[in-house]
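Input/output pair, single chain:
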Amino acid sequence: MGVNTLQARAEVISPAQQLQPTQAKKIVEEFAQSIEQNYVFTDIAKKIAAQLRGLTFQGVQSRHGLSKQITDLVSQYDKHLALVTRVDNNGKHSNGAREPWFTELKRKNSGVRQVEVLAGNIGYLEMWGFDTVSQQANEAIAASMTLLQRTDALILDFSQNGGGDGFMVSHLASYFLKKPTLLHTYLFRNGSRYPFRSGQPMGASQFRDMPLYILIGPDTFSAGEAFAYAMKHLGRATLIGEPSKGGANPINQFKLSHDFIAFVAIGTSVSPITGENWEGKGVIPEIKAEVEIAKSKAHLLALQDLADKSSNPYLMKERVEKIRQLATQLDVFNHENSSNNKSR
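Output:
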């Protein structure tokens, strides 16, 4: 990269995965054009395009090797930028390709991974992505919320949430806000705007005032970050974990030669509260905790906040016992972590 030359690794590349230097050059030139013509920030677009055009190619390239190297280069500017390939030269599925995001979401319960009622009547919902708003996705969310509506606090685990559809952000937010609320606005390159608002309140009314905790981390991205950022700055949720990945710019896809696809950010998000977004810096949690203990930390905080808010002696006892157990577990983790850091 430093000398603007991309060389294929010393490995055997099957004919179905081979790209000649001229083919690679054409693909990258088309990618540069798609960025130059569509990327939200024109000055950065010109800089990226110039860097891509300065690349030279030596030897046969592999399709996935080219995809990775170019994506690694452009993602330094914007984590949504990517050069993607999913098929080989014959148009057949490539074993090295990742399943399209929304195809996987639809296949895997629209992103809902786990629904649970934790000790002390604390709800827990883990979502690894935001599916497009559809009957299937809406039903998955509604079923989850029905199971959780009688809990006293709710933990939303987005620590592995890689994003998805912005309209699902608005849909899910409608469960937790008392009225339609502006979450953020998309600003596009041509100056146009699109406001994202939550809808009319949905689900059980108790969700509107229920204490809400959102887990985030380095793998929280895009729409997952959008939800967490909005809820944090609306004062509706407490964020726990580590800073998120830092992708605030919505994308569009553009077809290139040889069955490659350009992912290009065509807009940016702006919060009505901060006037900013989380691009490049991530969403910052109010309470920092390693991702592996963030769930326990949120559970403990929820129980502590509810410690004197029940007249049921059995529930109060359950909460006291779980608080003691979680506090001990976290103390052990912190001690071991501190010891490991000192030994390095």
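The CA atoms of residues 110 and 136 lie 7 Å apart. The chain has two domains: 5-85, 103-247+282-302.
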